[in-house]
Amino acid sequence: MKDNKIIEGVHHWATWWIRQRRKKLIDELSGTMSLNPFIVPFLFDYHNLNSIEEFVDLFLASHLMIGHNTGFGKLIDEKILPEVFGTIKLDKNYRQLNPPLENSAFNEIDHIVRREDGETELLSLKAGKWTIQLSMAIQLNRSFSDILKYYSSYYNKIVVGVYYGKNEELTDKYDILRGINRGAVHHVKDITHNVKIYAGQNFWSWLGNGKENTQYLVLEGITSAIEEVQIKKDNKILMDKFKKTISNQFKDTLGIDSPNKWKLLLEKINNGQSM
C-alpha cells in the first residue's frame, strides 16, 4: 500500500472520530455530573486541589479520558484496520456466515489479515501491556491451542498485536499466552512457533507488511485530521461553560471553606426521597 493511501485513509477516519468525540462532549456536558461523595475529600487532598474550579478541571479531564481511550481503541479496531489496511473484522455476522469462525475458539480473534501472496494470519488486538491479566492469558492460550489443533488447515498463524508500547515492556502475561512459564507454573501449552507478539512499531510494521514507517504514516493521518477539524477553540467554550455550571451547582458545598463541606456534599448527593 502506498504511503499517501495510508495517510489519507487514517486522516478520513480520524476526522470522523474527532467529530464524534466532539458530539459526545456536547452530549456529556448537557447531562448531569455524577460525583462519588466518599472519594471527593481524598481527591482534593491527593491532588492538592484548592478550589472547586480545580476539582472540576480534574474530574472533567479524567472522565473524558476514559471515553477518549475507549473510543480510540474502537477507531483502530473498527475503522482504521479494516478500512485502511484491509483487514477483515470478525464481527458477529461475519463469523456466523464463515465457518469455522463461529466456534468459541475464535472469540478472542478480532481480525483476519490476508497478504497479497495469499498468506493468512489471525490477529488478536490489544490496547496496551496491562490489557491482559493472568486468567485471560491462560484462556487465550487455550483458545489459540484449539484453533491450531482443530482448524490448522484454515489458520496456523496467530498474532497478538499491541498498538502502542514495546515488546520488551510487555508483562509476562504475553509470554504465558504463548505457553511460556516464568516463575509460577501454569497449565499452558507451548504454541510459540505459531503465535507471535508484536507491540508498538513492530505491530504497525507487521500490519503494513514490513513497512517500518507505517506508524509514522498513521500518526501523520491523525495529526492532519486534528489540524483540519480545529476543535480546540469550540471545545474550550463548551468546557468553560460546563465548569461554570458545575461550580454554581456545588458552590454551597465544595465552594465553602468549612470542615462541614464534605458532610454537606454527601447530603446533597445522597439524601433523596424514599421509594
* Largest sheet: number of strands, sense, barrel closure: 5 strands, mixed
- Radius of gyration, Cα only, in angstroms? 24 Å
* Class from secondary-structure proportions: alpha/beta
How are strands sequenced across the largest beta sheet?
1-2-3-4-5
Number of helices: 10
Q: What is the architecture of the largest domain at the second tier of CATH?
A: 3-Layer(aba) Sandwich
CATH uppermost class of the largest domain = Alpha Beta
User: Could you say how many structural domains there are in total?
Assistant: 2
Segments where pLDDT lies below 50 for 5+ residues?
Answer: none
Q: Predict the CATH topology of the largest domain.
A: type ii restriction endonuclease, domain 2
Give the helices and strands as they follow along the chain: HHHEHEEHEHEHHHH
Specify the oligomeric state: single chain
What is the mean predicted local confidence, pLDDT? 91
CATH homology superfamily name of the largest domain: type ii restriction endonuclease, domain 2
InterPro entries: EcoO109IR_cat_dom_sf, Restrct_endonuc-II-like
Protein name: Restriction endonuclease
Organism: Flavilitoribacter nigricans (strain ATCC 23147 / DSM 23189 / NBRC 102662 / NCIMB 1420 / SS-2) (Lewinella nigricans)
GO molecular function: endonuclease activity
